[in-house]
Amino acid sequence: MWNELIRLREATESRKISELFNDTSRASAFSLQNDGLLFDYSKTTLDDDIRTALIDLAREADVEGKRAAMFRGDKINTTEDRAVLHVASRALAGDADDIEIDGRNIMAEGRETFERMIQFSNDLRSGAWPANGPKITDVVNIGIGGSDLGPVMAYKALMPYIDGPRVHFVSNVDGADIHDALHGLDPNTTLVIVSSKTFGTQETLMNARTAMRWMEAGSDNAMERFVAISTSRERTEAFGIAPERVFGFGDWIGGRYSVWSPIGLSLMLAVGPENATEFLRGGHSMDCHFVDAPLQENMPVMLALVGLWHQKFCGYATRAVVPYEHRLSRLPAYLQQLEMESNGKSVAMDGTPLKHGGGPVVWGEPGTNGQHAFFQLIHQGTNVVPVEFIVGAMGHEPDLREHHEALLANCLAQSEALLKGRTLEEARNQLIGQGKSGDELEVLARHRVFSGNRPSTTLVYKKLTPYVLGQMIALYEHRVFVEGVILGLNSFDQWGVELGKELADGLVPAIASGKAPENANGSTRMLLEHFLALAAS
């Protein structure tokens, strides 16, 4: 099907998206609705033939069979010999069947941990924990990658639902991060959560030790106010965290898919167990849709196929995610990790080079801010960038309705402008109306031309709730899975992050000792010596 899709692209390359709307049913025919979400992909170049070919491509790659293998608990992460069952974490909010991996009932284990999280959350929020001190008012969540990006994204998104302690997130090994997070906090009313799957991540442990020293300097019961989210009881105990304050999860949950797991404890503490459970329910709803819906009516599948069409057949190397929802300000960063760490690969499952390459560059910023930053390039630049708009019909501030109306108007206007553009003749007429003429008119008119025909999709929901956020994140997770299957890669490992970490481990003592490693190249040696000289001056 790959060659057929190339042929279809060549045959339709000069066609205007606007022409496709001569079919008055196009908007409904090229959009999907499920459980309160609407996904509109009508402002793309897809037609019936292209969509059919893309669905055939998905069948050819056995998306349905591999989807079943993932939900069954097969070890589809072959390079690490692991199952991929983050979906099991959100199934805890429903009546899911038990799943066994290597003789272990992971659903039973997950339910037990989830109940412990609920009990701990209720105790902390009520003031029953800690029994020997004042009520916790602040939580410091220390983690990096999936241990940070998911929780901080969800915390900001669900700000209207926060009625528990304030949560401060620390991820960067830069000391400024932990310094600023701890500034002004009281150790006696602060809980520190150390989130590290292996409890061996350099940045996280360095920040955790700094937090421990800070806590010990201001509290008599320092280690009692530490909680660990980790699979390594041995390492957490060696750090000094008691087993009853350790919440573990299995290796079948990858870091960037872990917001559903105990990694989301900080979110539960902030919004409460009921709202945290609603978040899981939303994700589980999308799981059920992904499993049950036919491919053409399947939102994650169609989101993936539109993305593949743009990148692989239209040649658009990047895509912009632009949520017109300020509280989703961290969603683009979250999706960068989800998509680029998952599908930013060059090697196929069997170890051979990928025939069609890996996934795209993903970036973005909330609207309307993005309009005043990079939309100039999106509208008039030489590189076409498909835009994925995300917007809610309602806000959480009924007394600021006019703000939300302006937000919606801007979102719709941007997608319309990308589609329609502005011709040279239209630009001339506009300038004539402003009194311009002659050479000045001709020069200015060319600056005001918009080529249009730039694709976009729009995801619409009623209101950003915990349930809707769960739906949205699961939608994008499954989109990544489908794209990875079709490209023939493993979306669940991340070997690309390892080499830099290994080299950093060797450079830390070199910087401390003031001596460059013997095997450092000329540039690294020069930079290191320059750093040391600046620090000593």
Percent range of helical residues:
40-55%
Largest sheet: 6 strands, mixed
Would you count the extended β strands for me? 13
* Count of discrete alpha- or pi-helical segments spanning 4 or more residues: 22
Report strand %: 5-15%
CATH class of the largest domain: Alpha Beta
GO cellular component, one term: cytosol
Subcellular location: Cytoplasm
GO biological process, one term: glycolytic process
Keywords: Cytoplasm, Gluconeogenesis, Glycolysis, Isomerase
Question: Can you put this structure into words, describing what you see?
Answer:
The protein is an alpha/beta fold. The protein folds into 3 domains: 1-72 and 279-420 and 454-493, Glucose-6-phosphate isomerase like protein, domain 1 (Rossmann fold); 86-271, 3-Layer(aba) Sandwich (Rossmann fold), CATH 3.40.50; 499-536. 50% of the residues lie in helices and 11% in strands. The protein contains 22 helices and 13 strands. It has helices at 2-12, 17-20, 26-29, 48-60, 63-72, 86-91, 106-126, 146-157, 175-182, 202-218, 233-239, 265-271, 273-292, 299-313, 331-343, 375-380, 401-420, 424-433, 438-447, 466-487, 498-513, 522-536, and strands at 31-34, 37-40, 100-101, 104-105, 138-142, 166-170, 190-195, 226-229, 246-247, 318-324, 361-364, 387-392, 456-461. A 6-stranded mixed sheet has the order 1-2-13-12-10-11, with helices on both faces. Helix 10 (202-218) links the parallel strand 7 (190-195) and strand 8 (226-229). Helix 8 runs parallel beside helix 12. The longest helix is centred in the C-terminal third of the chain and has 22 residues, at 466-487. The termini are far apart. The model has no long low-confidence stretch (mean pLDDT 96).
